[in-house]
TrEMBL record:
TM region positions: none
Record-level Gene Ontology MF annotations: cytoskeletal motor activity
Cited SUPFAM superfamilies: CheC-like (SSF103039), Surface presentation of antigens (SPOA) (SSF101801)
GO BP terms in the entry: bacterial-type flagellum-dependent swarming motility; positive chemotaxis
Annotated organism of origin: Acidithiobacillus ferrivorans
UniProt record similarity statement: Belongs to the FliM family.
Name of the protein: Flagellar motor switch protein FliM
Lineage, opening ranks: Bacteria, Pseudomonadati, Pseudomonadota, Acidithiobacillia, Acidithiobacillales
Main location: other
Domain of life of the source: Bacteria
Compartment(s) of residence: Bacterial flagellum basal body; Cell inner membrane
Keyword annotations of the record: Bacterial flagellum, Cell inner membrane, Cell membrane, Cell projection, Chemotaxis, Cilium, Flagellar rotation, Flagellum, Membrane
Length: 298
């Protein structure tokens, strides 16, 4: 059956590129939420190759995770290469990336493997969402190891579908791999080859969700204006330490978020801290937003 294997290996699956692109965009958001660093993820073309040829090119020590993918037959591998492992640990623990990674002969600690497993959990969720237009996957980790021979998903000459992703996070970069036996997705071969369900103009719900999460987690500055008054430039130029500027005591204070007024309230003390009780919410208008943007530019 060698001729058939060679024919399969030369085939292309255009839809895989779309699925990989969806996964990369969602995974980028997940990495930011978990590691708090921006990541650029570049998917390469999915390739069909022999498992032995593929696994033999993976640098060591890598982190291999075998995953069951119901209802598809067989298992798949998620792989963090040594440089990505180093990048994840450095980013997670706040490293500065100035030291050269010492990877050869290195073992991963229990804590480091826990961090890797969290990354894999995010990858599984994003991979599942990316594949929803093709098949509803239920994925579960069955084994993880630093040695490929203990997480074999196919015989050496068997054809697999392998995808790689170049990941760059600020000062670090590495590779992330996903592979699975070709026979696992053979029932969906026509969809993967013809491009069915690969309409790139459709709304990408996964990316929209990741973007929404990023926005919700963005830190903004909130300030409360208790009082304000006008003084002349001459008065301001004569101010010295110890001078007193009288203000009328206001009943209402205004809350600003990034210099945009969004509400009024009563100020006081709560739990031994100064606090503001919102009494009225203001929906920011376009003029307020443009004014705040202009202030930021200046």
């Amino acid at each position: 059956d060698l001729l058939n294997q060679d024919r399969v290996a030369r085939s292309r699956m255009p839809t895989m590129e779309v699925l990989n692109d969806r996964f990369a965009r969602a995974f980028r958001g997940s990495l930011f939420n978990y590691l708090r660093v921006n990541a650029d993820i570049i998917p390469t073309s999915a390739q069909m190759t022999k498992y032995g040829d593929f696994i033999g090119k993976i640098a060591l020590p890598s982190y291999f995770v075998m995953v069951n993918m119901t209802p598809l037959r067989g298992s798949m591998l998620f792989i963090l290469d040594p440089y990505l492992c180093y990048a994840v640990i450095e980013a997670f623990f706040g490293g500065n990336g100035k030291l050269e990674p010492k990877l050869e002969g290195r073992d991963f600690s229990v804590i480091e493997q826990r961090v890797f497993n969290q990354i894999i959990d995010h990858a599984i969720a994003d991979f599942t969402s990316a594949w929803d237009p093709i098949v509803k996957l239920q994925m579960k980790v069955t084994r993880s190891d630093v040695k490929a021979q203990f997480v074999g998903i196919a015989a050496s000459p068997e054809i697999i579908v392998a995808s790689s992703f170049e990941i760059e996070m600020e000062r670090w970069r590495g590779k992330f791999f996903v592979c699975f036996p070709y026979h696992s997705v053979e029932p969906f071969r026509e969809q993967l080859i013809s491009g069915v369900a690969a309409d790139q103009t459709e709304m990408d719900a996964t990316w929209k969700t990741a973007l929404h999460k990023d926005i919700q987690d963005t830190c903004v500055e909130a300030t409360v204006l208790l009082a304000a008054r006008n003084i002349t430039f001459g008065e301001a130029s004569k101010l010295q330490a110890g001078d007193i500027i009288p203000f009328d005591k206001p009943d209402i204070a205004t809350l600003f978020v990034e210099d945009i007024p969004i509400g009024d309230g009563r100020y006081g003390v709560s739990n031994r801290k100064y606090a503001l009780c919102i009494t009225q919410y203001r929906s920011p208008d376009e003029e307020d937003i443009l004014k705040a943007v202009q202030i930021k530019k200046e």
